[in-house]
Please model this.
Amino acid sequence: MNFEQLKALDQGSAMSTYARFDLGIVRGCGATAYDAQGRAYIDFSSGIGVNSLGYCEPGWVRAVCEQAQTLQHTSNLYYNPATARLTDRLTSLTGMARVFMCNSGAEANECAVKLSRKYSYDTYGAGRHTIVTLRNSFHGRTMQTLTATGQDALHPDCFKPYVPGYVYVPAGDIQAFRAACDGSVCAVMLELIQGEGGVVPLEQEYVRAVCELARQQDILVIVDEVQTGMARTGKLLACEHYGIRPDIVTLAKGLGGGLPIGACLCNEKLQNVMTPGSHGSTFGGNPVVCAGADYVLSVISQPDFLSEVTRKGTYMREEIAAMPGVRSVRGLGMMLGIELTHRTGAQVAKECIEQGLIVLTAKELVRLLPPLNSSDAELKQGLEILRRVLAQ
Ligand SMILES: Cc1ncc(COP(=O)(O)O)c(C=O)c1O
Model:
């Protein structure tokens, strides 16, 4: 199938929810994707932070294939070793007490909302159900998580009514957060680096102040680490950079290494809140997905791997900061946003593809989320293309 045939097939059948680039990817290896003509593209997007070990990493493929040949699915009514191994590794590595496995970031955040409301209801009774989120945040596309997302541009009239029970405050304004805590609030949900919002890191002082105010009022702190978690920033969780211990952490994307996954982790205080029947998911904790994720976690949690992410992120940042047309580079580890002087991220992303490099955008920025195990040679090659495009 050539590209035109692929495009026609897709456009004739799939809902047009995505503004796709003129690129069809048919296979991949490491940080390199290939189109139907065999043309190579260095991939600095990893499928929006999903392919944390790149395309078809042999250990991950082995773990997934072996599990697919052993037990591909069983209901959550029964125990299975692949899922139990992953939940055990997740709790041991993060210091959290319990985890609920699901299939996406939005689903992990849905669980966080239910868990927060149930904790508050069980402890204080009805009426304390509001979730505070930040302006410019992104938490998903389901009706709950879209409502939680603090961006008016993502709340068009056509999807009204949105869901009640959410209040938005500007990031960095502790007085606004204090004012929002009016006795009706059960939780605050934060992305420590607002990824879709333009790779905007929250200030440490603000985050710590939010956590302290929340602690005083028994408001739960939910940290959405769907994009920042799983070694992306050079630590297993971005909250380690901030010195905070959230009540709830949500994960997805890079945890699965390429298969759909989500996880909602909670601390000891919340470990007995969910009871049989209060939540569930048919595919959540699927053994094949979990076997792959357990392999990913075993690799990315190694101290040497984490320090390599930091080293490679610093290298990329320094190289990019010296490129033409770059105003600033922000982010942490291998989650980078490039602010441009005179072009939009979308223009640059299109030109990069023409030159053999896949990058992402976030607002007006170019956003990079390369595979965490990208080699120096792959990074160098991709950066060379980026430099060429920016110099045009
Ligand atoms: C911070 C954050 N939360 C939640 C989501 C939603 O994740 P998913 O698309 O897996 O539902 C995303 C996706 O980009 C995200 O970046």
In short: The chain is about 40% helix and 20% strand.
